[in-house]
Amino acid sequence: MVLERGDGYYLGPLCINYGLVACFFVVPVLLAGFLQWIPFALALGIALIGGLLLPILMYRHCWSLWLMTYYICLPNELHANHPEDSDDLSFEEEKRS
Q: Which of 11, 21, 45, 77 has the most Cβ atoms closer than 10 angstroms to its Cβ?
């Protein structure tokens, strides 16, 4: 299956990755530091290290989430549902039927 890299090709996974790391890791760790559950300096260090390493570790998972979201929103672009007998999928609006 061939996927053409159209406008915003990398934007979806980037937003998913950033959102997951920020909302579910960095904010809770910093909140724990502000509430004095852990020392604030330790919370800052954990948030910094996690904010740098987690996006790298979650890279492939975010691509999977993005492709699943894409195909949920545009099910006719899935190869099995593609009306023509071709191996390429189109990201451009005028090529879609």
A: 21
User: What tokens appear for 43 in the block?
Assistant: 């919370």
Cα Rg, the chain, nearest whole Å: 19
**Residue 89 · residue 79 · CB < 8 Å:** yes
- Percentage above 90 pLDDT, the chain: 44
| Distance (Å, whole) CA 15 – CA 21 | 10
> Quick check: pTM over 0.85?
no
> And the tokens for 30?
């910093």
Report the alpha-carbon distance of residue 46 to residue 51 in Å, rounded: 8
Residues in CB range of 7: below 8 A, 6 or more apart: 91
Tokens 């593609």 correspond to what residue? 82
**C-alpha span between 59 and 62 (Å, rounded):** 5
Angle, helices 11-21 vs 59-73, to 10°: value is 120
